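Journal club prep — side note

Before the paper discussion, L.F. wants everyone to see what a predicted structure for a comparable chain looks like in token form. Sequence:
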Amino acid sequence: MTNTANIFLPTGSIPAVPAAKTGPPTPFPWVGLITLSAAVFLSVTSEMLPTGLLPEMSRSLDVTESQIGLLVSWFAFTVVLTSAPVAIWTRRFPRHGLIIVVLIIFAVSNILTAVAPTYEFVVAARVLGGVAHGLFWSVVGAYAGHLVPKVQIGRAVSITVAGGTLAFVFGVPLGTAGGHLLGWRLSFVVLAALMLVGAVLVWKFLPPVARYSTGAPASAAKSLTKSPRDATVPAVVLICIITGITMIGHYSFYTYIAPFLLDGLGVDLGLVAPLLFAYGVAGAVGLVFVGTIFGPRPSLGLILGLAVAALSVTLLAMFTATLPVALIAFVLWGMAFGMLPPLMQTRMLHAASPQIRDTASAFYTTAFNAGIGGGALLGAVLIDSVGLELVPIVYVGLLVVALALVIVTDRLAHRRGRA
């Protein structure tokens, strides 16, 4: 029987930035990782901003709120369709330069969104942003792992993913508040300007890395899908499946969180941005838990995160008429979900061998964004067919499926390890 005890945590060092065998240890790359985190902040804010401005964009463009929610699907499905091909096409380009180019394309996409005269024009602008986003995450997903040795991957990923958490803490709420006060178009203009600032910061402060952690020039797609000798492929596939299911459930609900807060809980429009801020702060607390407690124990953290998320969303759906309970559940949900992306990415980076790490990141990005796009689409279908109140119930069901997969695969890995 094949020993698969390390199905999620294969042994072997991961060569990152080449270093001498002797001499003082390389300092932890704080500045570079914080710069990378800032780029992630801008990217996630750009992706998620329509969720906070959904009512305003709906009225301005004369379309339904579910159609605005589908902007997230257009963006995410573009990532799904283009991330792997674009990653292969750009595999010989310097990773550092690609991040700068991507941020500039993001700026163009947001400017086009801001000046869009019609809904269809906004869709086209979002598709352009989606192409950039797919390339961005295929590079960024592995970039942190290239900067540090394997033992520090969890810490480095937590710092990088913190940018996404801060996007929910500050980016989306501030963009939402600005859109309420000054119009949704100005929010996208400001975001475009920040993208250009981010490109300058990346150029100046982010250390360059080798194109591949092993320097192998092999085709990215072949390295993951056509290399039977790499024993880590099944683990990467399982992580991608769990990630996709979790994201479908989450974004079927979170994409339409503004209408849920307004209509489901009955809060005032002016409270939407502060509540999104509270949700983001709670997510930051969850990220701290990852960095301090669960980074070395991603399986345990992932099980707890999925379980708490399912419980809190269940309470949120059951107590819509009891605002204090619903708001506590809402914040608890934010904390639990804040743990999930960094834990799933940490598991993926630990699972993938050095030869397929860049490619595994691209496929992980595909699964993640397939979940985002599929979730937004599923939410739109549910809202138009059965109503918003059933969306969180579907979300809980998908969380339970993801939780079961994590538990079963972990138990199988442990049993085979003892065999």
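L.F.'s comment for the group: The radius of gyration is 21 Å. Keep this in mind when we get to the figures.
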